[in-house]
């Protein structure tokens, strides 16, 4: 056997070994979500409410900006533990390495949701069900319409009081699943852990961690697998300014500091 042939075989074997050792989902850098929200919860005397929110995301922690959201909506409390909401927003995704080229895609979204809350001695639970209609426009001129279903279980635990009110520190955690009727059915999972503090009747600050993972459905193996480079950890900072109805001043009710996203 010639030396050149042996060398060629060694190169092929080395390349194959390196490819086999490449992880399906290489470790991603930590990113960050910066969220500012204005909320008007419903009350016992005025059941109408609403919110507006701006959000920015970065590929690295507080650098390499690539994504923003602008959204707002209105809500109505059918009863103190059952709220319906209709809202919409604009979502823009860019290449953080080439922001001057414009967005990779811009999404306009409309959604309808209802939220059920459960109050115990201290633990607060929130079940949120959402249906989304999504219109996407891509840089190359292509457009697409998609729908999605979401369910989020959110829990709050006040640490130094029985309710979340001015002067209260609290823990927050949620898990949310995203379902696509056209497939892959199980599209995304989002897990959040955080801590917050309500300074006064209006200002609430939260800091936490969120892991967001997107999934493909692997039909040959019959199991869900992560998309390449799709699972990502992020630091989350949320600033909320809570408004209140004038008629609710004398009858304050507890409202959970839920993130609208």
Overview of the molecule:
The protein has an 11-stranded mixed barrel with strand order 1-2-3-4-5-6-7-8-9-10-12. It has one domain (29-248): Beta Barrel (Porin), CATH 2.40.160. The chain is built from 1 helix and 12 strands. The chain is mainly β and 261 residues long.
Helices and strands, with pairings:
Elements: H1 3-21, E1 31-40, E2 48-60, E3 63-79, E4 82-93, E5 105-119, E6 124-138, E7 143-158, E8 168-179, E9 186-198, E10 203-218, E11 223-226, E12 232-242
Parallel strand pairs: 1-12
Antiparallel strand pairs: 1-2, 2-3, 3-4, 4-5, 5-6, 6-7, 7-8, 8-9, 9-10, 10-11, 10-12
Concise account of the structure shown:
With 261 residues, this protein is mainly beta. The protein has one helix spanning 3-21; strands spanning 31-40, 48-60, 63-79, 82-93, 105-119, 124-138, 143-158, 168-179, 186-198, 203-218, 223-226, 232-242. Keywords: Signal.
- Find the count of extended strands (DSSP E, 2+ residues): 12
**Secondary-structure element order, N to C:** HEEEEEEEEEEEE
The third-level CATH topology is: Porin
Number of domains: 1
Instruction: Quote the distance from N terminus to C terminus.
Output: 65 Å
| Strand adjacency order, main sheet | 1-2-3-4-5-6-7-8-9-10-12
Report low-confidence residues grouped into runs of 5 or more.
Answer: 3-22
Distinct helical segment count: 1
What is the overall pLDDT average?
86
- Class by SSE composition: mainly beta
Oligomerization status of the protein chains: single chain
Largest sheet: 11 strands, mixed, barrel
Proper CATH architecture = Beta Barrel
Strand content: over 45%
Q: How would the global form be characterised?
A: globular
Helical content, roughly? Answer: under 10%
CATH class type: Mainly Beta
Pfam families: DUF2490
Signal peptide: 1-20
Protein name: DUF2490 domain-containing protein
Keywords: Signal
């Amino acid at each position: 056997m010639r030396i050149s042939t042996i060398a060629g075989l060694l190169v092929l074997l080395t390349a194959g070994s390196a490819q086999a050792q490449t992880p399906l989902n290489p470790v991603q850098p930590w990113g960050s979500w910066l969220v500012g929200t204005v909320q008007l919860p419903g009350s016992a005397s005025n059941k109408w409410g609403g919110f507006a929110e701006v959000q920015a995301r970065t590929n690295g922690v507080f650098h390499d900006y690539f994504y923003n959201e602008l959204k707002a909506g209105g809500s109505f409390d059918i009863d103190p533990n059952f709220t319906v909401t209709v809202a919409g927003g604009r979502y823009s995704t860019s290449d953080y390495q080439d922001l001057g080229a414009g967005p990779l895609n811009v999404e306009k979204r409309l959604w309808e949701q209802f939220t059920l809350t459960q109050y115990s001695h201290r633990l607060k639970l929130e079940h949120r069900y959402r249906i989304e209609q999504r219109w996407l426009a891509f840089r190359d001129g292509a457009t697409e319409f998609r729908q999605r279903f979401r369910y989020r279980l959110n829990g709050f635990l006040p640490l130094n009081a029985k309710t979340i009110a001015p002067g209260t520190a609290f823990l927050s955690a949620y898990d949310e699943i995203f379902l696509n009727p056209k497939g892959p059915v199980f599209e995304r999972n989002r897990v959040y852990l955080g801590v917050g503090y309500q300074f006064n009747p209006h200002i609430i600050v939260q800091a936490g961690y969120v892991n967001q993972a997107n999934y493909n459905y692997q039909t040959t193996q019959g199991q869900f697998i992560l998309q390449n480079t799709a699972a990502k950890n992020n630091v989350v900072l949320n600033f909320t300014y809570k408004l209140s109805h004038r008629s609710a001043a004398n009858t304050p009710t507890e409202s959970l500091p839920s993130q609208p996203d």
